[in-house]
Every structure is written in C-alpha cells, then in structure tokens.
Write a structure and sequence with these properties.
The complex is a heterodimer of chains A (265) and B (499). Chain A has 265 residues and is α/β, with parallel strands linked by helices. Chain A contains nine helices and 15 strands. In chain A, helix 5 packs parallel to helix 6. The chains are: A alpha/beta (265), B alpha/beta (499).
Chain lengths: 265, 499
C-alpha cells in the first residue's frame, strides 16, 4: 500500500474516533508500528494531530471528509520487501529509450511495474505478465518471446524462445537467479531457464544479475555460470559481509539496495 | 653524490599483512649513504605503512632488513631511534608549552631537572640560533611553539629531525600544505642531513620535489614496488602513469540520476589564509567530488560549509538564500550535514549505545506532548539498523565495540535520521572494510535517487572517479580544475593536485 493511501486511512479514522493507538492501526493496516509512527509524525507536522505515547489525538476537525476507505493490502513478507528494494534499484539503472531484456521471475514483475515512470523503453521478455504490464504502459513497448508456456512460472521457454532471442540486441539484460553459491556460481531452478539465459547473454551489452539476499549460499538445480559474467549485481544489505568484499574485489559493481533515507521528495 | 659500496639500509622481500584489502608484498628497496630516496605513490599505496615497518611501528611478517649489513627487527620506535633510524611523522608532535629551542633539542634535556624560565643551562638557545641561522629559518628560538602557525610548526619539526644524531631519516610528506618559502627551508634541512652522509627516505606527493632534491625514486602501488627510477630518467607523465597503474573506477556501484536545480552555491570563499577564492556549486541529485593533497584545504572547506569555522570572506547560499552558519546546529537546521574526517574524534560517542548515537541529532522528531517518544525512537533505530545492514545491530550495543565500518554506518544513519538534504562526506570510507564501503556507496545512491546531494571529499582518486558526477581539485586552497566525470582521469587529477 502507498504511504498516501495509508495516511488517508489514518486521517479518516482519527476524524471518526478522535484518537487512535499505534498498535491497533499497525494490525489493521498490516504495516509495522514504526511506519505508523512515522505517518503520525508527518500528520503532526501538518498540524492534524498531537502525538502521545502509543498513539495520537485529533487536533482539528475542519477538513471536509474525504474519499471512502480503500481496501487494505495483505501482509508482506520480508522477502517481498527485499524484492521490492532490488526492483527499485534495477529500475533506476534503466534510462528512457533503452532496449532491455527482462528474464522471468518475481523481481522481474515488480521491475516491470516500476517502468511506468519511463518512456520509450522497449522490453523483451519471456514472462507473460511482464509483457502485459509493460504493454499497458503508455510510453513503453513490450516484445514477448515465443515458446512453450510453463504454467508454474507463467513464462515461455523452449527452442522457439531461444531462437527468437538471437534476433535481438539489448543494451541491458536483467537476469533473476535462484542461487549464488559459495563459489560464486550462478544457478536457476529450471533447465529451460538456464538455456534461455545462456542465449540471451550472447546478445546483451550490459548484464545485470538480480538476487535476493536469502538466495546467497544456495545452489539451485541448474548451473548458469560464474558470477564473473555479470557487470552488476543487485541484492540487499543483509547479504553476508564476505560476499560483499569478494564481489567488490572481483571488480563487479555490487548494489546492496539501501533504502533508508526518509527525507526524499 | 650517493656513496658507493654496500647500502646503508636494505630491504629484501619484506611482507606485512594488514587486512584483506591491504598488505605489503615482497618489497625490495635499498638506501645508500648520502642519498635522498623519494617514495611516490597514491594514497593507500603503502608508503607510510612501509616506512612504519622500517622504523619499528610494526614488525614485518617475513623478509629481511639489513642496517649496515646487520639484520634488524625493531620492536619499538625507541629501539629504532637508538639504532639511528628516525622518522618525522605527518602529524607534527611538538610540545606546545615549550620553546622552539627546547623542542628542537628535546632529546638533550630529558633529565629530571625542571626548566627554569630565562635560564638556558643546556646551551639550547645558542645552538638553536646557530642551526636556524645556517638553515635560514626565520623563527626566534625562544618563542613558544603554541604561538606558531601550521607551516612554522612543520619547519620546527623538520629541524628537530635534523638535530637528531642518526644515520637513516624518514620524512613523511614534510611539505604538505606548505607555502614556497618554508618549502625551501625544508629542502635546506634535507640537504644538510644528506651532506652529513646519512640516508633519507622522503615520502611526497609533489612531483617537482623529485627534481629539486631527489637522487632516486621508487613508486609504490597497492602495497608493491611498481617502479624504480633514478632522478631525471622519468618525466612527469611517466611518473603519473606509474602511480595510477591499475586503478579501476568501473567497479564502484553508482546510480546515475538526472540533476535538479542548483541547491548550494559557494562564491569566493576565503578562510584563515588556507582557502582562497573558492567558488563552486552543487545541484540536486549530484555527487560532487573534491580531492587534493593533504593541506590543500579540503577539510577546512568542509568545516566552513558546516558552520564549524566561520569563513573570513565570500558567500554561501543554500537553495538560493545566503547563509552564515555560526554553529553546526544552524547548518543542520538548513539541511546541511557533515560526516567528518576523523570519525573517532569528531563523530562517535564511544561509551554511548547505538540508539543514542543515531538519534542524537533528530530528537525533535521524537518529541511528543509528554516528552520523548522512546518507542518510536527505538523502532526507527531498528529500522535503520536493518536498512543499512549494521552488524551486530542491537540498539543497546555500546559503540566502542563496533568495527570502524559499522561505526561509520551509525554516523551515516544519524544524519539520515535528521532528514538533511546536503551531505558533506569527508573521507567517509577511509580505514573501513570493503563490505561496509559497499553499503555506504549504496547509501549514497539512496540519497541522490531521492533528491539529496552529496559533496564527497576523498583522497582516494579511484573512489572519486567511481562515485562522482563532477570532480574539483583543490591545491594550495584554490580550485585548480573542475572536470565532469566523462573528462576526469586519475592521471589528470594527480597532475592538477600535485601542482
């Protein structure tokens, strides 16, 4: 859920009841208590309420009532938050006018949604959902590779997909991997995905590996190659320190997707 | 002229491990009688570390060191001094409350007798006056050290080395931040020592000094000997090339963003005879790099912008409005933060916990109607610990137990929490491990992608090239070049910085 949405809910709640407590609001909205407190801090700065321990009191009742309550999003796991951070940083690497390939995956789908701020981006993908999301964005274009659909991943694989990839040249290739092992070997969960990525590597200028921190020190079933094939790796700060220094020493750009600054616009 | 015969001091395959990022590898080097052996190399190349292992600060792990043919392995600086090996450090150590003469001849006055004012029982003043006369030092021997300026202290410190009876002298950047007349005096001191037949290792970043007083030079790079050159056989460009070999700014994680409008401008800033006519501007979302040699005025500039020092002249504008900070708290109120160079001394409360260290500048945020909202403070601290990957990462951990990298992350979090918009970072990654550096670079990306701006002051040229959009080089308190990232190279930067 977006911050603006949450703040609207808090405002309506306060207008109705005159006070609220942090704990129950965090339960109701499925966000952490610190998020609620930060929202209350903003609302206090606007003069809307007065904070006290554990909650807040309404200060003014002048504002007219606003739109009805929107539906509340379900709870999100830490891994989902990690994927969000990775997708945020990956999307910042894309410039208007780029031709990129996004290989299927969960981070890939979040990344596709974030491309709405860009225009003139052409996305080549084997992920049906990524293609649909990008195609719906006014300024961007999606190209879906052909092939046989895999119902588990919602993506297209097989010899047709591999042959089609060869017809393109992309300036950025985003590969979501399922494991980075102790020996810094990249791996993915299916043989078809590994085969498709190997073809894609041949026709890409810059190769960017996306990997959640929980996937480090793990080996998925199919080997893709050494980490050294990547120019950039995007992951989270919770990756063990030894990986950070080893990857930096290999002259690969490592992004740990810090998302700490609250003072942004 | 350098003497013939066996070398005065010889290093054979000296190795010393410091950490995973830096070690001295297989150093072979010698020093002859009556020669000035220049040591060149970028910051972090190992010049000072190597000399420290010669002078007894560290012991080597392996290899041999021979002084006049005898194997040596000094356990302490005093032992080295006793054998005639002395070092003059970059940070001048003089006694403020003693006279110049007493400092210069301190070795002579270590008896238990207290100094009687006006009584010169050791002949110090006379000897000092004679020495200063010969070297052309225009400082009165009976003046107090506390009354001297920065350059004069450096001169006194060099003269102190000159007064020592030793056969091997090490000077570590003795002319850093010095003006031309004082530099001539230091050269005189070095020549005087050489004429006595002693050997001198001379660390410098100023390439013209090789031609002026050097007999020979060795270039270090990443803890190894990169090249060895007799004077005159290498030109400036070739030396710079040897010093920059193997820099790879491409490995730095940097997200490029489109800049916004100008957020800070500095016009004709002057301060304390160090900074002269400094003008530049910073845009929203930009990482501006400032580099320069020690003593070029980098840190003073940071302190002027943060309200630690009031500039003597010039104008600073934040978001178009002139500001005149009298105290750092005023700078913070306008969204300007400084992550200072010396973290230990100027930024961490060693005996306080992470919670206090992090929230100290943002207490206003936690103020509710009934006092500080501790719950909020703790929760927000925990959130920063997670998002910056601070280890071990409990709000109640006492800071002094933390590694340098994690302490630095806590300091970064402090200014994040105070919601500043302009971050001045003075050597933010000096002396911290690679893992923490990566997270600090990612934190810098976090700032600029959210519209904050950064001034990155660093002596690490690779880092400057890797992280910055634009590079300013300071030399002698002036900006000598202003290069966009696309035009900046390490060779150009070193060329401008070394004057």
């Amino acid at each position: 859920m977006f911050a603006a949405e949450r703040i609207n809910i808090l405002k309506s709640y306060l207008r109705e009841r005159g006070k609220l407590d942090v704990h129950s609001m965090s339960q109701l909205l499925s966000v952490s208590e610190v998020t609620i407190r930060r929202d209350l801090e903003k609302l206090e700065a606007e003069g809307f309420l007065t904070r006290h321990h554990g909650g807040a009191l309404l200060r003014t009742e002048e504002d007219p009532p606003e739109a009805p309550l929107p539906s509340v999003a379900p709870a999100e796991a830490q891994n989902e938050a990690d994927r969000e951070e990775i997708a945020r940083v990956a999307s910042l690497m894309i410039r208007d006018g780029d031709v990129v390939m996004i290989v299927n995956g969960r981070i890939a789908r979040i990344l596709a949604r974030r491309l709405s701020v860009h225009s003139g981006v052409t996305v080549l993908t084997n992920d049906i959902q990524v293609a649909l999301v990008v195609a719906a964005q006014a300024g961007n274009k999606a190209v879906l590779l052909g092939g046989s659909p895999d119902p588990d991943s919602g993506a297209l694989f097989g010899s047709l997909a591999q042959t089609n990839v060869q017809a393109f040249f992309v300036n950025k290739l985003f590969i979501e991997v399922d494991g980075i092992g102790e020996q810094l070997q990249l791996s993915v969960a299916s043989q078809e995905k590994a085969a498709l990525i190997k073809e894609a590597l041949e026709c890409a200028e810059e190769k960017i590996v996306l990997c959640e921190s929980s996937r480090f020190s793990k080996q998925a079933f199919f080997r893709l190659g050494p980490l050294g094939l990547a120019h950039k790796v995007v992951t989270n700060t919770s990756v063990p320190e030894t990986y950070k220094s080893r990857i930096f020493a290999m002259d690969i750009q490592l992004f740990t997707s810090v998302n700490a600054f609250e003072g942004g616009d | 002229m350098p003497g013939d015969g066996p070398p005065l001091l010889e290093l054979r395959s000296v190795c010393k491990y410091f950490n995973d990022e830096f070690s001295l590898h297989d150093i072979c080097l010698d020093l002859r009688r009556g020669e000035v052996h220049m040591l060149l190399g970028q910051n972090g190349s190992g010049k000072t570390a190597l000399m420290n292992s010669v002078c007894g600060v560290f012991r080597r792990d392996s290899g041999e060191m021979l002084l006049e043919g005898r194997d040596i392995d000094f356990a302490s600086v005093n032992e080295a001094r006793g054998s005639g090996v002395v070092m003059q450090y970059q940070n001048v150590q003089l006694f403020d409350n003693l006279s110049v003469a007493e400092n210069v001849y301190f070795a002579r006055v270590r008896t238990g007798r207290p100094f009687a004012p006006g009584l010169d029982s050791y002949g110090l003043l006379e000897d000092c006056a004679r020495l200063f006369g010969r070297l052309g030092i225009p400082i009165a021997p009976d003046s107090l050290v506390s009354s001297l300026g920065y350059s004069e202290r450096l001169v006194v410190s060099a003269a102190q080395a000159c007064a020592a009876q030793a056969s091997v002298f090490v000077f570590d950047e003795p002319t850093a931040g010095m003006a031309e007349p004082e530099r001539e005096i230091v050269f005189n001191i070095v020549r005087e020592i050489r004429s006595r037949g002693a050997g001198i290792f001379y660390i410098t970043h100023k390439l013209d000094e090789l031609r002026k007083i050097g007999d020979r030079a060795t270039v270090l790079h990443a803890g190894r000997v990169a090249a060895s050159v007799p004077d005159g056989s290498a030109d400036r460009d070739e030396l710079i090339r040897m010093m920059t070999g193997g820099t790879n700014p491409e490995r730095y994680p940097r997200l490029r963003v489109d800049y916004g409008p100008q957020i800070l401008s500095v016009e004709r800033l002057r301060s304390g005879g160090v900074l002269e006519d400094v003008s530049f501007s910073l845009r929203k979302g930009e990482v501006l790099g400032i580099t320069g040699l020690m003593g070029s005025g980098r840190t003073r500039l940071a302190n002027c912008l943060f309200g630690q020092i009031r500039p003597a002249g010039g104008c600073v504008k934040v978001e178009g409005r002139p500001v005149d900070f009298r105290h750092p708290s005023e700078a913070l109120r306008r969204g300007v933060a400084l992550i200072p160079e010396d973290r230990d001394k100027n930024a961490t409360f060693h005996n306080q916990d992470v919670l206090q260290n992090m929230s100290i500048a943002a207490l206003d945020r936690f103020m509710g109607a009934y006092g500080l909202d501790m719950r909020y403070m703790e929760e927000l601290t925990d959130e920063y610990i997670v998002s910056l990957g601070i280890q071990p990462g409990h709000a109640g951990d006492i800071m002094r137990g933390y590694s340098g990298g994690n302490q630095q992350k806590v300091v970064v979090a402090r200014w994040f929490m105070s919601l500043c918009r302009i971050f001045i970072m003075d050597e933010p990654t000096r002396g911290i491990d690679a893992a923490a550096r990566i997270d600090i670079y990612s934190a810098m990306n976090d700032l600029v992608t959210k519209g904050a701006s950064i001034i990155l002051i660093s002596s690490d040229v690779e880092e400057i090239l890797g992280m910055c959009d634009r590079v300013l080089v300071l030399a002698h308190g002036r900006i000598v070049c202003d290069l966009p990232r696309s035009e900046a190279t390490s060779a150009k930067i070193i060329d401008y910085a070394s004057g």
